Amino acid sequence: MGAAPFVALVVLAAMSACTGAPVPAASPSDATADATGAGPAASGAFDPDMVDSAGLVDIGGGRELFLECSGTGSPTVVLISGAGVAADNWGYAVADAGASVESAMPSDSAVFPATARFTRVCAYDRPGTQPWDGSAGGSTPVPQPTTTQADAADLEALLTAAEIPGPYVVVGHSLGGLIATTFARTHPDDVSGVVLVDPASQFLQTALPPEVWSRWMQSVAEAGAKHPELESPDYPSSIAALDATPPLPPMPAAVLSADQPFDFLGIGDADAYWPQWLEAHALLAASLGATHVTTTNSGHFVANVSPALVIEQICAVVAPADGC
Questions:
Q1: pLDDT tens track for 96-149
Q2: 313 three-state secondary structure
Q3: What residues have CB less than 8 Å from 89, skipping those under 6 apart?
Q4: How far, in Å, CA of 210 to CA of 52, rounded?
Q5: pLDDT for 78
Q6: In the predicted model, what is the mean pLDDT of the chain?
Q7: Which residues, including other chains, have CB under 8 Å from residue 221's CB and lie 6 or more apart?
Q8: DSSP-derived secondary structure for 108-143
Q9: Helix axes 148-161 and 175-186, enclosed angle (nearest 10)
Q10: How far is residue 140 CA from its own chain's centroid?
Q11: Could you give the CA distance from residue 141 to residue 128 in angstroms, rounded to a whole number?
Q12: Residue 49: CB partners within 8 Å, gap ≥ 6?
């Protein structure tokens, strides 16, 4: 597997690093499987009348998005992956605590199947995202770069077309965290809680020195131009539009931060601006009045390395009557 398909896997940074990211081990039978065993390669149309369904949803404009849902109950948990990463990410977990993300495999202990045991859960592929084996994603491509506002609009169209009723608990990893924040602030009446997993944050723009932020954004844009088939986020435009959006009203929220430094800037030095990454998370958690989990025994892929911590926070926000 070459590096290019996974250029976006390490948060915002992999887009600038262009060095690739850890590829979970997978058997040939798992190569196109998502959390419940059906992936884009096997998908027909999504069936909203089935408890477990995976397939394409027509969102209008000649576009389809791949969606997978499982479980029953309310609210519906919507899992939003990081940059370039498809829905199957939420079905992978390491076998042993502290193991590296490279060893992650499809697992019943992963976030998607575990959440399906106590409520309805859905995950989807954004345009330009890929399963962890590097195969083509199932959703219709769109011109890149994209904003989190466009992503939030796609998500709203998807949930409506697929007949997935609210309220929703949005759970976002990395770029997915910024999309989750955008969706929640744009549709606050439809969202009952937020869980952000080592998220991209609007506060990182001010936490980093201006010249570092500018160089990073230039690198992200250059990487996107080199790989037009991959998702390429427009962070400056997204953050500017988010700043003009009303703040999120009080609701249950959690932020989980990696506690093992990773090179989110793609500069070959994981420690240089690590304090700024953590500062942005602290500011985000404070702005939401959120529970802030800072001991995760993980690098950036918290949901894959320490899934029980993520599931615990989802459970706390969902608060099912019969527990989790």
A1: 877 889 899 999 999 999 999 999 999 999 999 999 888 888 899 999 999 999
A2: helix
A3: 81, 82, 123, 132, 173, 303, 304
A4: 47
A5: 98
A6: 88
A7: 145, 232
A8: TTSHHHHHTTTS-EEEEPPTT-B-TT-PPPSSPP--
A9: 70
A10: 18
A11: 6
A12: none
Answer for the pair 78, 100: CB distance below 8 angstroms, yes or no: no
Residues 6+ away with beta carbon under 8 Å from 269: 263
| E strand intervals along the chain | 44-45, 53-60, 63-70, 76-80, 92-93, 105-106, 121-124, 168-173, 191-197, 253-256, 291-293
- Of 159, 90, 85, give the one whose Cα is nearest residue 128: 85
How many degrees, rounded to 5, is the angle at CA 132 between CA 122 and CA 40? 55
At residue 26, φ and ψ (nearest 5 deg) are -150, 140
What's the Cα-to-Cα distance from 18 to each of 6, 130, 186, 224, 300, rounded to whole Å? Answer: 8, 16, 32, 10, 17
Q: What are the tens digits of pLDDT across the range 192-207?
A: 999 999 999 999 999 9
Distance between CA atoms of residues 304 and 10, nearest Å: 13
pTM of the entire predicted model: 0.90
| Contacts for 108 with CB less than 8 Å, ≥ 6 apart | 114
Nearest-angstrom CA–CA distance, 91 and 70: 12
Among 182, 199, 202, smallest CA distance to 191 is for 182
Rounded CA-CA distance 93/308 in Å is 10
| CA 44/CA 38 separation, integer angstroms | 10
